[in-house]
């Protein structure tokens, strides 16, 4: 197990998935210490900096990568375990953004009505207390929120030679914006090109389900990931696993179709793991499953479907890769 | 505080919200012990009874009521606190149903492809152990699931003289099918006609989020509710409160519009309770909110938006009616 | 063939489908001369009258009826042929309306952004020239538009005892807002209660497809209809027929589901009329069908699916009832 | 005005928009005679060849191009006028396809129900009679349909370095599948990269609105196009113009959002051309506009919004480029 660093220089950041040369090459089982910039490219310095004025559209949501994983072949699964995700600055930023977010006219839900006001919030990050402090802009309401750091954008090169903007989640992962991509979670992504070509960014110090205003507590991050490759087993959509749940995702519009994809995928996965036939697995997921929104603001919406692992009895996904990566993460942490 | 019983006879069950004479009249603060039939009208007696064959469409999902609440006037809020919900039979039933559920062509998502197979599952209910036992139909997989009893259908007479089928959730409540309507929760419904005219049914011994196959663990219930009236404060959509969360609902299609309604409503509610302006409340809900699916199978889909009550500081919804009903429920329970 | 008049007094107008006593009783084959009020209840008298201020919500979109058709039994089809539709006033009115229309936040597509400005346009109606004159409010642009009068709202009592607001189109017809309901068209509606209980209103001197701003050229109308009953043949959704096309409708959200319903229904109808199996009918409709939007603003959206009648060869829908009603209409007109 | 030929060899066909080197370079005002392959890559030779078996997924829907247009700069508009589109083989092919089409479970509208049967239809093309003959597969129904040849897929390199599969329509054009792209129409596309990089394919001998089964009368084509560049005037979405209508498009899901985009765009265009303010233009489009579905089967759905040009009075789009290209097309045709 080697430990690598990836600290991109400003000009090394990437704004698409696919088509790029790797910044780093690692082996299955390796660990990468990676720094990521915030979704504003670090250009919002105060609550008076309106993102739409200080950040060129083409420089939104930079990602760090790609990272090539040697031996990952088309049809394999890339397992990315999040060892730790730690805010890199003493503040995080959130904002509305013209024509972005679930509750304002957007480019996709196009209307003649005016978009919402653009407003910026700065949160103080206290790593000791593990909190972020919300301060209202228009009153003196203040509130300390627990940190729950995550990466909104994690993905690989798409299939069929496509190159996709970082803001669009799809089968290759991307900007799924689910709070489940936190330390302790393993994300499974399809390998569509040799080496998989993993990139990540868009750290949030925390985020509500649905990311309704369009942003979380946007934060540069110092993160550590462990990567592995599961041979074969081609995924249709990204999946996740933590100690308690297996989780499927769907990223598409309308939201019910994102729900349908995530549920269909989870039912198939459950069927494979338990030997239940499709309808019996449908029944089990119907009664035990959780279905939180991830994002309802990006070009594709993302839903999650979660099943508690105790319901799988002794079955383990992908030969226990999550368990092994979890153990490797602990070894790394206690070095 | 009076205690009433409502045990409808078969011919007293109702299949619509609105337009019906009350079966019972109670006062604000009263408690009602109510029995409800399962969604199959009690006609499915074994896994070999296909619901589409043994239950006439017009007798699906019977509700108990209406209950008239004296003094409830148009523009008031009816508070319904669930004191207890206890399965009334030693089994619960789930099934697929032709042209119903999220993962099959339906009457609304109409297709030429054939619908899924209809299949019935019987679960053994063990009240002592507080479990329901899942038994696969096509293998020997068996699993004991914790009970989490709820009512899928709770509503009042709609506004403007409308009469709506029990299966359709909307502004009047109805078939929202959210697992949050469990013992310990207070449901707030708009009062659209004098006396509110509350009905409830569709008990589930438990249900996953989204009710993806179209049914939960359908169960006749012996339930106890406490009702109260909040004067004024006209609701646009049903809201809920338990000890930890305030929750808004939206029931419409597509699912992102149900999400939008629930979020908009929760933001407005948060703004009222905290004094935050709309955008500041939008920000807080964006970072702290939860957004689980309730149902993605009924004629309208239902999303929930949840905010932890600690973020409201000392503010209490509706003058603390939830807290008072919770206390009354405890008094009732320890009689 | 009897000729009836229905000229409701202001207090006789109806605001729901279902649950009302008939204003008139007619026999199959009869003709009814019916007057309808505009969607504003005749309360908007000048471009300075904002509808949201002068029309109570509960008095929007009055309909004339119900008309009971003797002998119409549950499971039959009511055929309503439009003999003539003539604007009753020298002007028609259009407007935006807060929280209504496709390009503004609405009650269903709920947002925090402000709704569009409310604005009213008066059109001069010239029956001689058969034109309506558009006058811009904010410039001197003027344009003479051809009249194409239609009824936005035509429906019957819903099934299962439901009572629905006039603004919501569904399986019972209602506010479908398709320009195809013009003179020369026969509308087929399901009979859900004895006598069918037909009501109509919401005349438009003309309307674009989709009714994107939420209103057409709203106009009181003097209309003549001929009604007939097709025994049996229970409809799932309203259908239309004119001299050139058979047409199916679907009214639901999202819009693709309205499309799916209308297409599925048209394919089934085509299959019945031609003997093609379902897939062959799917193929024919795929290559010859038209698919215009009707409304994308009402509580349910409506799509139409149209197939040219020449493709049906000699087949006639419902035993030629459209042709017979067309002939009766000509007899009436030349009296 | 130069006349070019583009007859790609099999290995020259392209399956994406963006990222490719041009096969041909032309100047504004030039004409290109271009041959295109059918969407099956010419691999379906008889009704017994199931597309899912004989065509690799990665070789569906080949396009001819890219064609570089010299002098086209980012922010310009590429005008593509269709001079003629003529079926190149004596037959056209249509089919259902597993998990594709509006009335079957698909990858996006994912379900557990089985997809529809795959079936292939061969149509005889008679260029003299200008007809295609439909033959039912499961009965002896035969019908002669008028040809109305069109290109389903026409687009340019996307913005921001994206590379998109040919099957996905979006802001760069692509697989919009509207029957309006016929001879006599000018298509306006945004120029996102120097030279625009135009590709086209997916000819249909005719197609219904919505392309409900997922395919038209798929046909290799011999087409002639004339290209021009409008300096400046950056488009958000593709637009079209023929002798009667200006037309806007929107390609996204759900279908109402495609409708919203197309309507918003048409209103803006109308406002520019007439000097009407936004709300007055909204009003005019509401009353005169047409709104047919283009496709309801591709990864993004496409709606069209059409306004008759007589309503624009003397205004001409883009300085009359359509009129000039139309004239050039006539010159070419009478050579």
Low-confidence stretches of chain A: none
Helical fraction of chain A equals 10-25%
**Mean residue pLDDT of chain A:** 97
The ordered string of helix (H) and strand (E) elements of chain A is: EEEEHEEEEEEEEEEEEEEHHEEH
Characterize the largest beta sheet of chain A: strand count, sense, and whether it forms a barrel: 9 strands, mixed
| CATH fold-type name of chain A | Jelly Rolls
| CATH level 4 superfamily of chain A | Acetamidase/Formamidase-like domains
Residue fraction in strands of chain A: 25-35%
Which protein chains are joined by the largest interface, and how many residues does each one contribute? A-B, 60 and 60 residues
Number of helices of chain A: 4
Output the structural class of chain A: alpha+beta
Query: What does the oligomeric state look like here?
Result: homotetramer
Q: What is the 3D shape of chain A? A: globular
How far apart are the termini of chain A?
13 Å
Strand order of the largest sheet of chain A: 1-4-16-6-14-17-18-20-19
Number of strands of chain A: 20
CATH architecture annotation name of chain A: Sandwich
Return Rg of chain A in Å: 19 Å
- Class of chain A in CATH? Mainly Beta
Organism (chains A, B, C, D): Sinomonas humi
Pfam families (chains A, B, C, D): FmdA_AmdA (PF03069)
Protein name (chains A, B, C, D): Acetamidase
GO molecular function (chains A, B, C, D): hydrolase activity, acting on carbon-nitrogen (but not peptide) bonds, in linear amides
